[in-house]
Amino acid sequence: WTAPTSNGGSAISGYTVSSTPAAASATVTGTSATLTGLTPGTAYTFSVVANNAAGAGVASLASNSVTPFTTPGAPTAVTATAASAQATITWTAPASDGFSPITSYLVASTPAGGSATVAAPATTATITGLINGSAYTFTVTAVNAAGSSSPSLPSGSVTPAGGPPTPIITQNPSNPTGNPSVAFGFTSSLAGAAFHCSLVAQGAVDTFSACSSPQSYGPLADGAYVFKLTATDPATGDTSSPSVYDFTVSTTVQPTVTLPTVRPQLGTQATTLGIPVTIAWSGTACTTNAPSCNVASYRLQKSINGGVFFDVPLPSATATSIADNLIPTPTSAATVSTYAYRVQATNAQGLASPFAIGPTFSVATTDDSGTVSYSGTWSGFPLLGAFGGAVHSSSVAGSFATLSNGFTGTAASVVSTLGPDRGQAWITLDGQVVATVDLYSPTVQAGHVVWSTDGLNPNVAHSLKITVLGTHNPASTGARVDLDAFMAVK
């Protein structure tokens, strides 16, 4: 209020504030007062009397009407429903809001572990982060402008329980590992889970036993192994499916390499100036003999006509084959072009193998005009791009051509012509049909390697034959088969 404009000639000593209806009053010296003991929900007005030495003055006009409020009543009918590591709580709003709108609700658990605040008028909340297997009750408190109500009666007791915990492998050996002693670290999605571990050779029956992190094994023999881990919820007994880690133990050993092999490349063009071949090898630096296991790099070298070995570039450090182009030698030639390859492996620890030196060899060729025996109907034709400049051709089924004296060597191939009127043929090696070749192509491709093999015994004589079938690809206009040349690596 505001002090009166006149003090009646005597200083104002104080003010008396009274409520209507009568419920409370207060005497103060200032121009504001707080009256307590009012009844919530009852409308009140207030008047003020100024006092001085002469006594009490005239009461002021009444204030505006106001209605006091208080804290709300406690929520009722609190219920809880448990799920995995959480619970959903519902309740009924209190019968009295204390004459001030409820603004929010506070939900708390016993034992402490989770709480939630939700805005009114919602009457449900979900509390997370609870421990599966632990029993909880919940209370709800209502909040309005006056403050918080008393907590509700607690809900019934509920126990969160979910599915089995998830086992998580946090530490494992590399794959492959050169260390025969290995260790695994692990945890799970549930604190306090019980663990069981199994480590067996690949394909063996699992042998689970109780374990704790870290779990060590060894020394292990070289080989392939599988580690499995399960986690169990001790409160419910639920056990997870296993987490699995496969690995191989390959202890450090001196690397070894195989002898490099040579094979004419299928699908390439052979000429008197060069025969495309593939040089291949393998190596290992593990007692398991797994190909290229623990090999960090290979080194390939080549010698021509008995000369000094020199390095051959590889497409990558661990490549196990390259393409090369070698000069062929006719079977009747007096001078033979010879080649040799050797290869070395170095393991990840820097140990190098001795060079593995392949046998010295040549690429012997017999073109269609050489020592070839023809049976059936064959005719010779010059052909641009053919290996020797000419081919023998036949379209008559059953006609065949064979090396008159056979051959010795580790690999062999047949050179023919692809074209729009070419047919199909059998390739026979040592009396057995080993391939059916289709010589059709939309365009003529002379000097084509249409069949190739390797891994032959170089110490025995082999026979090689091409037979006209008289059949052809539906796209072809004929059944013609050309013999251009036979080739052997020997």
Feature tags:
490 residues, mainly beta, Immunoglobulin-like, 40 strands
User: So what's the overall shape?
Assistant: elongated
Q: What is the terminal separation in angstroms? A: 123 Å
Tally of discrete structural domains: 5
Biggest sheet strand line-up: 26-29-40-34-37
Provide the residue-averaged pLDDT.
Answer: 92
Uncertain segments of ≥5 residues (pLDDT<50)?
none
Q: Would you kindly provide a written description of the structure presented here, covering whatever features stand out?
A:
The chain has 490 residues and is mainly beta. It folds into 5 domains: 1-68, Immunoglobulin-like (Sandwich); 76-148, Immunoglobulins (Immunoglobulin-like, Sandwich), CATH 2.60.40; 167-249, Immunoglobulins (Immunoglobulin-like); 254-362, Immunoglobulin-like (Sandwich), CATH 2.60.40.10; 365-489, Sandwich (Jelly Rolls). Helix content is 0%, strand content 46%. It has no helices and 40 strands. The protein has strands spanning 14-20, 25-28, 45-52, 55-56, 76-83, 86-92, 104-110, 115-119, 124-128, 137-144, 147-148, 167-171, 182-188, 194-201, 209-211, 215-217, 223-232, 243-249, 252-257, 261-264, 275-280, 283-286, 295-304, 310-312, 321-326, 329-330, 339-347, 356-357, 363-367, 372-375, 379-382, 390-394, 400-403, 411-418, 424-429, 432-438, 445-453, 464-468, 481-483, 485-489. Strands 26-29-40-34-37 form a 5-stranded mixed sheet, with no helix packed on it. A 5-stranded antiparallel sheet has the order 30-33-38-35-36, with no helix packed on it. A 4-stranded antiparallel sheet has the order 2-1-3-4, with no helix packed on it. The model has no long low-confidence stretch (mean pLDDT 92).
